[in-house]
Amino acid sequence: MADKSNEKKNEELKKEETQGEQVKEFGQLTLDNNDREHKIHLISIIGEIEGHECLPNHTKTTKYEHVLPQLAAIEDSKDIDGVLILLNTVGGDVEAGLAIAEMISSLSKPTVSLVLGGSHSIGVPLAVSADYSFIVPSATMIIHPVRMSGTVIGVSQTYKYFEKIQDRIVDFIIRSSTMKAERLRQLMLDTDTLAKDVGSILIGKESVTEGLINEVGGIKEAMAHLYTMIEEKKEK
Prior knowledge:
single chain; 236 residues; alpha/beta; 7-stranded mixed beta sheet; 45% helix; globular
């Protein structure tokens, strides 16, 4: 009996160590202690979305080369029942952000997103990429046109390229939410809200009213909805 008890303790310690490493390295965790015995994979998208270039060490980042393989592993796993995505991001690399958003959107497992703090810029497609989305009352979403750093060549082809990038973002948002393209572009090009920029800030309930996010709620509501989605899928 003592040996079995020690084995169980060692397994629990090993599991805690593994989970600690997952959180430390990737901001991810498997939640499996709930009463309904569902296995939920938690993914946090925080700070700045890092793309093909490494950001400074002092910058909080979400690396797409970490998230994409993990999403593929989740899709392939028979053990994972659903995915919870927590977001508090200032945006970042457009290509990397859209790649993650498309991966989340194409998962066969039930997915729920929860915006905490903020989900700005390319964080908007990431927030709406889940099957169902929540936002806490104090969280913000900033919608603005695409920006580009570095050398910009002042020719018509550059502006056409910018427009194509913008169209890709708009297309993803409108097919992943109930917001209309015309209203999205209107908010994107608003000049009255941001002091030094073009765009709009939506706070909590405003993002729901605009059709961007499904519901105002916190972690309790997000988890409960994800459990329901998992159970409905298992019944089918």
